[in-house]
Amino acid sequence: MGVICTVKEIRARLLHIPEVTKPARLDALEALVDRLDESFKTPQGVISWLQAESGYFGGLRPIDALLRGRIDAVDAALEALDSGIFV
């Protein structure tokens, strides 16, 4: 997968995943995007975190979990990060 340049592009890619486009999942995605905006100072910070390998995901990247429809797992990882837990 190439470099994803914007949060908008990430959202557009996720909207093509059937598991994500259910109404409750769309609400969860919107909440996650809002949380990402609150957790990081810049869009580049969001992108860097999403594309970095993470021990929380066993070496996978948060974006990989999102692209598999695992909004809940990415939200949990962000909660851990916001709580000061670095995995």
Would you kindly provide a written description of the structure presented here, covering whatever features stand out?
This protein is an all-alpha fold. It has one domain (7-82). 60% of the residues lie in helices and 0% in strands. The protein has 5 helices and no strands. The chain has helices spanning 7-14, 23-39, 43-51, 62-67, 71-82. Helix 2 packs parallel to helix 5 (71-82). The protein is globular, with a radius of gyration of 12 Å.
Shape: globular
Radius of gyration: 12 Å
Percent helix range: 55-70%
Per DSSP, the total helix count is 5
List segments where confidence is low: pLDDT < 50 over at least 5 consecutive residues: none
- Estimate the mean pLDDT confidence: 81
Strand content: under 5%
Terminal Cα span: 24 Å
Largest sheet: none
Overall structural domain count: 1
Structural class: mainly alpha
Task: Outline the secondary-structure elements.
Blueprint: H1 7-14, H2 23-39, H3 43-51, H4 62-67, H5 71-82
Helix pairs in contact: 2-5
What's the gist of this structure?
The chain is built from five helices and no strands.
Keywords, separated by commas or semicolons:
single chain; mainly alpha; 0% strand; globular; 5 helices; 87 residues
